[in-house]
Amino acid sequence: MSDFVSDFWGVYIAVVVIVGFVGLAYLLFTQSKTTVKKGEQVEITGHVWDDDLAEYNNPLPRWWMLMFYITLIFGAVYLVLYPGLGTWKGIRGWTSVGQYTEEKAAAEAKYQPLYDKFLKQDVVTVAGNSEAQAMGKRLFQTYCVQCHGSDARGAKGFPNLTDNDWLYGGTPEIIKTTVNGGRQGQMPAFGAAFGEEKVKDAANYVMSLSGKKHDADRAARGKETFAAVCSACHGPDGKGNQAVGAPNLTDSVWLYGGTEKTIIETITNGRNNQMPAWKEFLGDGKVHLLTAYVYGLSHNAKAQ
User: Fold this and answer.
1) Beta-carbon neighbour count of residue 176 at 10 Å?
2) What is the rounded distance in angstroms from the CA atom of residue 194 to the CA atom of residue 206?
3) Which sequence spans correspond to the domains of the chain?
4) C-alpha to C-alpha distance for 143 and 290, rounded to whole angstroms
5) How many Cα atoms are found within 13 Å in the side-chain-facing hemisphere of 12?
6) How many distinct helices (H) and strands (E) make up the chain?
């Protein structure tokens, strides 16, 4: 409720809650006074089914009415203690943000010494520690599986972390840099500049680099285009450049797919992919464990 743009809405909500609460209490009170004396005939409501099945206007049982009174009392106490009346914070001053902060502080006090212990060790050593790998796996399953998958083998547009093919490099230092600061991978769109035929030529040359079935004539023409434009990022031999995250085009690993149709789509429209930065959110200790876990996925058989 603290994000209201004016005090009016806080008052408005408080009035609605109070009026509704009082209205329900009044309705309950009036219905509680309705009784039926022994032998007294109860009127029907006028609802009749199958000619003789009628709905009688009997008052609610006392025990049921008592439950409603208990609910109203509980609601009144809750509105006094906790937020519920517009901008009123309740006498306990509880907020979801405050509770989150307290629980986070308690968790950090409990687990930070453990994080600090592993933070003093290098990534390779931590990657070989079963306890650290179990912690890193839980971190990975919490923050990373949405993109890289529960088995860390990635998906279309998201790298496989279990092999040794790395866009930016797979050393402990580079992996930690990636986790800390994130990555912004971008390939420009060349469809407008090349034209449809030239794009197909370049695609066939790219397919030839990895030994895929291709059109030799188109590949020969595409080689010139590749040398003039694409080699700036992917290198003259097509083996990529980890300094800028340009992938190796000579192997069988494809981030978006290696069919002619997909390669043409990539050259025509370009690609734009981003990995978020985790340093501020996770902190050094968790990043260190996560780095060790990711490193272990492709270097430690037990981690897989």
Assistant:
1) 20
2) 15
3) 7-81, 115-182+276-303, 188-270
4) 10
5) 7
6) 13, 4
Q: How far is CA 265 from CA 154, 187, 250, in A?
A: 20, 12, 18
CATH T-level topology, domain 188-270:
Cytochrome Bc1 Complex; Chain D, domain 2 (1.10.760)
Amino acid at 154: G
Q: Nearest-CA neighbor of 253 among 298, 303, 283, 288?
A: 298
Contact status, residue 139 vs residue 129, Cβ threshold 8 Å: no
pLDDT exceeds 50 at position 135: yes
163: tokens are 């092999």
Return the higher-pLDDT residue of 62 and 229.
Answer: 229
* pLDDT tens, position by position, 162-221: 999 999 999 999 999 999 999 999 999 999 999 999 999 999 999 999 999 999 999 999
Q: What is the pLDDT of residues 289-301, one digit of tens each?
A: 999 999 999 987 4
Judged on CB neighbours under 10 Å (0-12, 13-18, 19+), 128 is: middle
Radius of gyration of the chain (CA): 33
Question: Residue 252 is encoded by which pair of tokens?
Answer: 């069988």
Give the helix ranges, DSSP H, for 33-181.
Answer: 62-81, 96-119, 123-127, 130-143, 145-148, 172-181
Q: What is the spatial distance between Cα 218 and Cα 202, in angstroms, rounded to a whole number?
A: 8
One-letter identity of residue 39:
G
The whole-angstrom separation of Cα 254 and Cα 219 is 19
Is CATH 3.40.50.150 the classification given to domain 115-182+276-303?
Answer: no
Q: What is the pLDDT of residues 37-50, one digit of tens each?
A: 776 777 777 788 88
Name the token pair of 216: 């030799």
Asked whether this chain's domains 115-182+276-303 and 188-270 adopt the same fold, the reply is yes
